[in-house]
């Protein structure tokens, strides 16, 4: 249904603002996505918001019209409000003119079909939501099947992660599990586990990768624990020509993912 919110004290507004907090997101099973571009990506991937908030009294983009029609047709809510209230909702002064409330869509590890993609990204104890969102975006770019989050990672459905993913939160499978669960599942079928590490002499371009390839990136500060590294089928490193001894975790993942993709492309071309 279509309705309007004009007051800051509206109970629904307080409830939706609460989705910026992890414990309230978990309790509700909902998360926020901001901006027409991300919401259009979601729609194209088959996801519609349960609630669509938009700033009233302004011209609508054609994509926004289409989105509103489909939300209403699927028994969702379209809620018009002011720019000031939208800023409160998003937590930003320059708030987007549309915000969606979506049902979270994590995938159980046992439901993952590894044969559906040649590349999978795996992150261990990733703390920065921007890095996590960027990894999702990289996964989408290289045609990865999804992102498997190991141990205590930041919440993939936080506003910051969703924003950084640029819509890839809706195109990539997202799994959250413990290391022991992951390794047991991985070893139950085909899969090459490749870890990025400083404790190896194997150059990432000299190595040979096989599908499905699981690219494992460790925590931003500590990297991978030694016992996790020891369980990798292959450990590789990237040359550092300057004073830095490592790359940002999301950047390293992107470099690795494109190297694996390029090897697979050249192999298929041959």
Structural summary, described in words:
The protein is α/β, with parallel strands linked by helices and 270 residues long. Helix content is 36%, strand content 20%. It contains 10 helices and 11 strands. It has a 6-stranded parallel sheet with strand order 8-7-6-10-9-11, with helices on both faces. The chain has a 5-stranded mixed sheet with strand order 1-4-3-5-2. β3, α4 and β4 form a beta-alpha-beta unit. α6 packs parallel to α7 and α6 packs parallel to α10. The termini are far apart. The mean pLDDT is 93.
SSE blueprint:
Layout (H helix, E strand, L loop, with lengths): L1 E3 L6 H7 L4 H7 L1 E5 L1 H9 L6 E5 L6 H12 L3 E5 L1 H8 L7 E6 L15 E6 L4 H14 L3 E5 L8 H7 L7 E5 L1 H8 L5 E5 L16 E5 L8 H4 L4 E3 L12 H21 L1
Parallel strand pairs: 1-4, 3-4, 6-7, 6-10, 7-8, 9-10, 9-11
Antiparallel strand pairs: 2-5, 3-5
Biggest sheet features: 6 strands, parallel
Question: What percentage of amino acids are in beta strands?
Answer: 15-25%
Give the overall shape. elongated
Terminus-to-terminus distance: 55 Å
Strand order of the largest sheet: 8-7-6-10-9-11
Q: Which regions are unreliable across 5 or more consecutive residues at pLDDT < 50?
A: none
Mean residue pLDDT: 93
Helix share of residues?
Answer: 25-40%
Q: What sequence of helices (H) and strands (E) makes up the elements?
A: EHHEHEHEHEEHEHEHEEHEH
Strand element count: 11
Class derived from helix and strand content: alpha/beta
Radius of gyration: 20 Å
Quickly count the helices: 10
């Amino acid at each position: 249904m279509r309705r309007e919110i004009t007051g800051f004290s509206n109970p629904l507004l307080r409830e939706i603002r609460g989705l910026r907090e992890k414990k309230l997101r978990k309790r509700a099973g909902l998360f926020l996505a901001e901006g027409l571009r991300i919401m259009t990506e979601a729609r194209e991937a088959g996801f519609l918001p349960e609630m669509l908030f938009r700033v009233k009294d302004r011209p609508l983009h054609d994509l926004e019209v289409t989105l509103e029609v489909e939300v209403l047709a699927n028994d969702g809510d379209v809620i018009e409000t002011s720019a000031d209230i939208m800023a409160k909702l998003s937590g930003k002064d320059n708030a987007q003119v549309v915000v969606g409330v979506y049902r979270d869509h994590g995938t159980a590890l046992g439901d993952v079909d590894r044969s559906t993609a040649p590349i999978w990204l795996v992150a261990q104890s990733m703390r920065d939501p921007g890095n996590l969102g960027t990894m999702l975006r990289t996964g989408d770019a290289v045609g990865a099947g999804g992102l498997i989050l190991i141990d205590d990672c930041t919440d993939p459905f936080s506003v910051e992660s969703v924003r950084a993913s640029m819509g890839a939160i809706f195109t990539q499978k997202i799994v959250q599990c413990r290391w022991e669960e992951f390794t047991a599942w991985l070893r139950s079928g085909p899969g090459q586990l490749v870890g990025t590490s400083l404790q190896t002499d194997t150059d990432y371009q000299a190595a040979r990768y096989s599908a499905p390839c699981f690219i494992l990136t460790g925590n931003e500060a500590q990297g991978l624990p030694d016992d996790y590294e020891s369980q990798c089928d292959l450990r590789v490193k990237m040359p550092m020509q300057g004073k830095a001894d490592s790359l940002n975790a999301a950047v390293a993942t992107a470099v690795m993912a494109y190297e694996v993709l390029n090897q697979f492309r050249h192999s298929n071309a041959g």
